[in-house]
């Protein structure tokens, strides 16, 4: 397995995986938003980036969409793992763990101060993976969607 930055030729694979992810979380997303996200992933000046997992045959089987941002309590950037998804047929091979370890290695090598993420409280599969890195903390998320 190989973990690397997403490239332009990964778009179709990424879109298929994103569709599976959106179905899993029960979210409908317009093609305009998906296209804008992909453009930002490829833009070196964007704070959004994507790491993909490739199997031994070169097929993209998973992704980690992340946002790098500043914070008020640290001097170096913070990495927010917004989306992590593995193709259903490729699960159980350690791909999620490999993507997480890759993000940790990037965080250390690039001097980022923190890596964080959220998941649904009842997503036991994801929580099993995430708990192997660190137990969940006591923070509670609030969210207001501005367009509602």
Briefly, what is this?
The chain has 148 residues and is an alpha+beta fold. 34% of the residues lie in helices and 23% in strands.
What does this 3D model show about the protein?
With 148 residues, the chain is α+β, with helices and mostly antiparallel strands. The chain contains 4 helices and 5 strands. It has a 5-stranded mixed β-sheet, sandwiched between helices.
Query: How does the overall form come out from the CA principal axes?
Result: globular
Radius of gyration: 15 Å
Mean pLDDT: 94
Strand content: 15-25%
Per DSSP, the total helix count is 4
Roughly what percent helix? Answer: 25-40%
Q: What structural class do the secondary elements suggest?
A: alpha+beta
Ranges with pLDDT <50 over ≥5 residues? none
Largest sheet: 5 strands, mixed
- Cα-to-Cα separation, first versus last residue: 42 Å
Please count the beta strands (DSSP E, at least 2 residues each).
5
Strand order of the largest sheet: 1-2-3-4-5
H-E string: EHHEEEHEH
Structure keywords:
148 residues, alpha+beta, five-stranded mixed β-sheet, 4 helices, 34% helix
Give the topology.
Layout: E1 2-5, H1 11-25, H2 31-42, E2 48-54, E3 60-69, E4 78-86, H3 95-109, E5 114-117, H4 124-131
Parallel strand pairs: 4-5
Antiparallel strand pairs: 1-2, 2-3, 3-4
């Amino acid at each position: 397995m190989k973990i690397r930055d997403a490239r332009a030729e990964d778009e179709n694979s990424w879109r298929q995986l994103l569709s599976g992810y959106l179905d899993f979380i029960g979210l409908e997303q317009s093609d305009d938003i998906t296209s804008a996200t992909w453009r930002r992933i490829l833009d070196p000046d964007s704070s959004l980036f994507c790491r993909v997992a490739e199997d031994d045959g070169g097929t993209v089987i998973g992704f980690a969409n992340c946002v790098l941002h500043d914070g008020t309590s640290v001097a170096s950037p913070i990495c927010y793992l917004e989306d992590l998804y593995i193709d259903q047929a490729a699960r159980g091979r350690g791909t999620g763990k490999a993507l997480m370890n890759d993000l940790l290695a990037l965080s250390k090598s690039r001097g980022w101060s923190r890596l964080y993420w959220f998941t649904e409280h009842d997503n036991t599969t994801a929580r099993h993976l995430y708990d192997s890195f660190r137990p969940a903390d006591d923070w509670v998320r609030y969210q207001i969607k501005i367009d509602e």
